[in-house]
Amino acid sequence: MKESTIMKIHYGTALAAVGLVAVHILMRLTTGFADSLEYENVLANYRSIPYVVMLELILILLSVHGFNGLRVILLELKQGRVYEKAVSYGCVVAMIGLIGYGSRTIIMTNIGMV
Amino acid sequence: MTEDEHREGIKGMVNPGRYGIERVAYLLMRLSGLGLLGYFIAHIYETSNILRGRMGWDEFLALTQTTEGHIFLALVIGMCVFHTGNGIRIMLGHGGVGVGKPARPDYPYEPASQNYRHKIGIYSSILLAAVAMMYGLAVMFGE
Question: Which of A53, A55, A72, B11 is the most buried (most CB within 10 A)?
């Protein structure tokens, strides 16, 4: 993929994530910060379909943005054909792993496996 | 940049003292990005504790509901706000907003893109991050 396309994805994921993370944080303030973290409240959040969709979107957007940012930093430090490929593929694998792990929590809690 | 500066590697990358506030912003952007990625991974792990039931959740939550936990979270808020504010400035700059018009390079060759608009953007991001951290601390310690 062209670097210019990757940067557009980087900026797009950033802008989308800012809006969704703002909603995610505001949800913590609606019932008071400590109360919103009570087990029942968190479980109720995970059982709400719109909220779960938003969490999944945040997970994907921030994973893509975060690991691409890490890739950019690592490529600024050192260059080389093998190194660049290792960094790029390593970041993609880590990103997929994190999305998979986070999705597991979201799905299992949503369908009541807690 | 001289050849010697190229050879500095990571030391050259993290040296904030040589190129003004733009280099400080460059460094803070990378540090806050790495910090936020670390926090994000930890947060995904932290929230997975809900699968251990009420006891598992409460146990892990107790670790974060401490003075140190709140200070750490305030730092995360600061990093998040700075990264967002400065990120928007960079996006606007890459889109050609606020970088000035192309002109003939004359002595003392000041780069048009490093102008007061972008400097204000950097200082505003730092100020906003500080305010958000204070608000976050007030919310967390106020309860």
Answer: A55
